[in-house]
## 1
Amino acid sequence: MKNILVPTDFSACAANAVDAAFKLAKKAETTVHLLHVITDKRTQNDAQEWNQAIENANVLLKKIRAEHPDVECIALSATGKLLTTVQQYVEAHGIDLVVMGSHGVGGKQEYFIGSNTQKVVRSLFCPVLIVKHHLEEINFDKVVFASNFNQSERAAFLKFKEFVKPYIPEIHLVMVHTASLFDPPYTLSKEAMKDFQALCAPFESKIHIYKDFTIEKGIRALADDLGAKLIGVSNHFRHPLKRMVVGSNVEALVNHANLPLLSIDYLE
């Protein structure tokens, strides 16, 4: 990694992501990009209020930079739509990882509106690390990678492995069966997972085929049982209508997982 982007609204939730990003950057000698997007349309008709909002944001960004003098940091405020601005920034600055905080949403909002973090995960073709709580340290030495382990997932897994490599991790490969007609036979699942287990070398690895009512709940339950410190998932792009009908396991994890979640998106 060379560049980490942290969109921040200066909330406590975003502060957790900012802190985690600087800890990651210090270990990897990476540049942190802080981005605050001002989206409040109410101030656009008042130039003085608009300029004051920008000035206030710049003061807060400068304060964060001053708190981390040992990490190279680029900080700026921008105006516009959050998702569009983040997408443009990622493309323009060669961002390798986006780090965001999340407190999750529920009910109908989860499927029809979603949090800002959900929208970024849904739309950004870039690895996104979602942080729910303050992390005292970054030490992903026991991790879970959940997948269906099709060959199309290899690139995402190798990106995940590269991310956790500095922590000499114990990697747990997880496939969740839900008693659905679409579940593959157990023997085929195990063979597919063995191919991925070979990719884990030289790190220790284990295979788990877990049963639960939903894939998302199974991933969370097993990760908790294992005492994992990070969940990694490959994030397939979903058409918005399909997402509303059948949901997204990744977005459900964004909302409900307590552990840090690394979503790795890619184009099929």
Note: Confidence is low (pLDDT under 50) at residues 107-114, 241-247.
## 2
Amino acid sequence: MNARRGSAGMPDVSGGDRLAELEARLERLESSPGLRERGRRLVDRVMPPEAAKHFRNAGREELLGLRAIVDYWLRWIDDREAGGGDKGRRSIEVE
């Protein structure tokens, strides 16, 4: 007998039939909207456009803040390598 035990939710089918069923399931999954797209549609339904704009701007400001930190330390390294600025260790106080 060539039938194999199917996985949970799958009937017992032969190898060729199982492959056809798996390909059909894959086709259904790939043709349905993805998780990201479904999530975006949900957010669009519950969040007004003005709020979305504020959140985008806040994310941009966060990235600009990180850029400022990176730029500061790059300048510090460049100054140190050029022989100017601070020498040796740098103390950072944490409260």
Note: The chain has a mean pLDDT of 83.
## 3
Amino acid sequence: MLQHAYHPLYLRGIEQFNRCDFFQSHEVWEELWLEVEGEDRLFFKGLIQAAVALFHLGRGNVHGARKLVAGAHHYLGPFRSRHMGLDLDAFLAGLGRCVDDALVHLSDAGRPVIDPKLIPEIRLEPAPQQDPNVR
């Protein structure tokens, strides 16, 4: 795969997200968000919000999770259906299913229970090859 053409912080954040280390993925993507200029800042802000939504959900903060899922949809929506190798339609649908399911399956203490099988996994398309003759 040609994923090396993607920014290393983007890939590291994905790696952390796919390990369900949502707080750390948010930290990595935030570092990238601070570096990037232009429209891609909104894309990374949406990924950050998705990661933090799952972090809050896992800690029982339902209100925060719902608010951040809405934010993720807001920031990632304009990049649909695919951006930076990520199928945003599938990612956002999976995020919604995961959160909705957790809100109806509560622990004995009344906290949402996240089904690990429903957490969306981020799989990228290979990065487009750059023509070595173009500068």
Note: Strands lie at 82-83, 86-87.
